[in-house]
């Protein structure tokens, strides 16, 4: 969501511009105020030596500040194996949002990121410029300033890992006088962010959205899944009803599948469903999956998609009655939302 920096009542509360203060609050490191030259060195010298466990997290509330110092601070946080966070109602904007990308899992050999926000947090990006004779302005004698800044930021994001370069490039096209707030599933996933707090209520059309997202993953980014996902989502009445419907979707009665249908019909419903999918489904007898009809076309052969959701996962099963395949996915609950629809 875009907002104008001049609209302070909408974007952020008025904030006194002072150098960033770091304060320990248990394993939370409260980082407040503007990012100024020297903050990264202060963090490395006075904060990083005390980070000795996996739960230490830098919790930001900052309007931004020096872009280059924001990158240096992100690198210092990354080197200290600390996570980053923006809490509900707090701001991390401009250069702060760049530092936020430094969040890292403690002691992770896999170099996993740990960046977290709560619903209602204001994490915002925009394009950068400088009108001063500072480090960024000096290199303008050789290269166009905005191109150089973006190249520096993309190189930094690559080193921090877990950032979709295409998404960050788009965020950096936001006018300097505006701010793109991170509040959609696509943005959250593209920046490697985990959403904290109680699960958000699922949208009414979550089965259709989850199945559309599953089909989109199957056909790739250059095709459109929307025409392939039909209306008429309907919850199956029981595991027995699920078994019967999945048999019809995967092994149509008019196909040469009589022996398979008979064998699967003779098993317990849960066992038959697991065999048809090829792995355990763990369908809840009290809350069976929702069936979403699919259309075939453009090389896509799916007949139906089955969707289940709980607090931890969204599960989709795309069934293909031509090749007789079933593709199961388990994803973050945000998979059941429109990727471009703001969550708050």
UniProtKB/TrEMBL annotation:
Keywords: Signal. Residues 1-19 form the signal peptide. This is Uncharacterized protein.
